[in-house]
Every structure is written in C-alpha cells, then in structure tokens.
C-alpha cells in the first residue's frame, strides 16, 4: 500500500492466498511421482525426514511419511530443534513450549500410519531454535550416521527464506552426499512468500506426490495436533498465531511438492 513500508522479513509480509496457487495451472502439470520414487526410481531402505522444528515434517511431508508407513517401510524423523522459541516473549516459557511441541509431533506422527501399526522413529538433535545455522557443521556431521542405510531423505528446502530451514536443508544435503543417500527438499514458508512462476523457486526440479483421500485425511488430523502453532497462547491479547487457517490451506492439499 502506498506510503507503507513492506516488512523486511517476507514471512511477516502478507502472503500468497491458496486460491491463487490453486488456480496456477503449472502445479497441476508438475510431473507426478509415486512416493517410493520421490527421489528417483524405486528406492529400498526407508525414509528419513529432517525437520528444523517440530511440525515441519508434518506440514511438508506427512503424506510422504504416511505412504511409506503404509508399505511397512522404516521411517525416521530427525528434529534439529525442539521449536522452543516459536513465541519469544509469549506466556509459555521455552522449556514448557519445548515439551508441548515434542508431544504434538509424537501425537501427529502416531496418526499417520495405519491403525495398530508402528509409527515413525523420532530422533532429537536438540540444537537451539533459531540457531541452526550456527551449528550447521555439527548438524551435517550428525546426520551422516542418521541417514546412512536409508533409501531417501527429505529435508526442508534450502531456499525457504527461514534461517533454520535453509541451514537444515544444506546440512541434510551434505550428509546425504557423504552417506550416498538420495535427497529431496520440501518447501514450507515458500507457499507464503513466493508467487506462481516465481523465478526464485526451482520449479524445474519440482515434482508432485498425489495423496489418496485416506492419506490426506491422516495428514489433516496430524496437522491439527499442533495447537501451540494453530492457537493463540493468550486469547484477547496481541499474541501471534504462527499457522492461521489461511496458512494451513497450503498444507492440506491433495498433493505435496518436493524439489529433486
């Protein structure tokens, strides 16, 4: 708007509404891949999903996780941080917020597999929230052993315009190259700050994983577990909701997009 300065942080600026993405034909025309071939021809060995914060793995790759669990594949989720700084200065102290966010991820992952089956393994690296870049080399070294022996690793996109996400993506890429594991990246905040045909986005490397109605239902249920991100911590006060309904719309589509 004339006379107003745009926020320096594109994540804080107004985002691209989901109907705009839905109307963009290129998303419909993306190459479609089976979950087992998301990183190339069918790969045995299971799936590792790296997340900068608890909920990244659900927002960006819950369908991929659920599809692998359906086939009995081994799934490991590596949380680089516990997300304890999502609400700096808010009414929930960081140690309590950390505990709540881990419980939310545990509940969410428990909803992704078929009833009565095992869920994904969770590994916590316990790096400081908002400080992954400062520990990027350590993260990459630790991830080498955590991805070794798996067929595919999915990690946050290294261009997501969030420092922790980008550092997580770079660390995972280095680890996968060292361990000889196929690697893909999933966007999270990109759906907010980017726009259709945005030249900052590697659309030429994007593929689409279609979700069955059942996988989509499980993902919706899993997303709903993250109450710390979906609700105000202090109703009636100026307390930011990290994932308001208009943001959640980006993640409950009948497909997921990853970059190869």
Short summary:
With 260 residues, this protein is of the alpha/beta class.
Our measurement of the CA-to-CA distance between the termini, rounded to an integer number of angstroms, reads 37 Å
Beta-strand portion reads: 15-25%
Largest sheet, if any?
5 strands, parallel
Q: What's the overall average pLDDT, rounded?
A: 92
How helical, in percent, are the residues?
25-40%
Order of helices and strands: HHEHEHEHEHEHEHHHE
Count of β-strands: 7
List the helices and strands and how they pair.
Elements lengths: L17 H5 L2 H4 L18 E5 L4 H15 L4 E7 L12 H17 L10 E7 L8 H12 L4 E5 L6 H17 L2 E5 L3 H4 L12 E5 L2 H11 L3 H4 L14 H4 L6 E5 L1
Parallel strand pairs: 1-2, 1-4, 2-3, 4-5
Antiparallel strand pairs: 6-7
Helix pairs in contact: 3-8, 4-8, 5-6
Annotation keywords:
single chain, disordered N terminus, 260 residues, five-stranded parallel beta sheet, globular, 10 helices
What report would you give on this structure?
By secondary structure, this protein is of the alpha/beta class. Helix content is 36%, strand content 15%. The chain contains 10 helices and 7 strands. The chain has helices at residues 18-22, 25-28, 56-70, 94-110, 136-147, 163-179, 190-193, 213-223, 227-230, 245-248; strands spanning 47-51, 75-81, 121-127, 152-156, 182-186, 206-210, 255-259. The strands form 2 sheets. It has a 5-stranded parallel beta sheet with strand order 3-2-1-4-5, with helices on both faces. Strand 1 (47-51), helix 3 and strand 2 (75-81) form a beta-alpha-beta unit. Helix 5 crosses helix 6 (163-179). Mean pLDDT is 92; it is low at 1-6.
């Amino acid at each position: 708007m004339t006379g107003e300065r745009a926020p320096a942080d594109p994540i804080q600026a107004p985002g691209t509404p989901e109907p705009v993405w839905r109307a963009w034909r290129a998303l419909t025309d993306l190459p479609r891949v089976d979950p087992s071939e998301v990183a190339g021809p069918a790969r045995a060995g299971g799936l590792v999903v790296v997340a900068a914060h608890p909920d990244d793995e659900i927002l960006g790759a819950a369908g991929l996780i659920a599809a692998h669990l359906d086939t009995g594949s081994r799934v490991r989720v590596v949380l680089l941080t516990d997300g304890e700084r999502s609400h700096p200065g808010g009414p929930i102290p960081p140690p309590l917020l950390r505990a709540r966010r881990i419980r939310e991820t545990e509940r969410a992952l428990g909803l992704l597999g078929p009833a009565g089956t095992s869920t994904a393994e969770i590994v916590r690296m316990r790096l400081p929230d908002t400080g992954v870049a400062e520990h990027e080399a350590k993260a990459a070294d630790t991830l080498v052993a955590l991805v070794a022996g798996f067929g595919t690793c999915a990690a946050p996109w290294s261009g997501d315009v969030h420092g922790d996400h980008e550092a997580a993506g770079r660390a995972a890429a280095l680890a996968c190259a060292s361990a000889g594991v196929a690697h893909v990246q999933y966007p999270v905040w990109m759906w907010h700050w980017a726009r259709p045909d945005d030249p900052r986005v590697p659309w030429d490397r994007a593929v689409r994983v279609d979700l069955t109605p059942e996988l989509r239902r499980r993902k919706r249920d899993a997303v709903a577990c993250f109450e710390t991100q979906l609700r105000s911590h202090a109703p009636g006060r100026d307390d930011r909701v990290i994932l308001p309904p208009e943001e959640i719309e980006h993640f409950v589509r009948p497909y997921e997009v990853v970059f190869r």
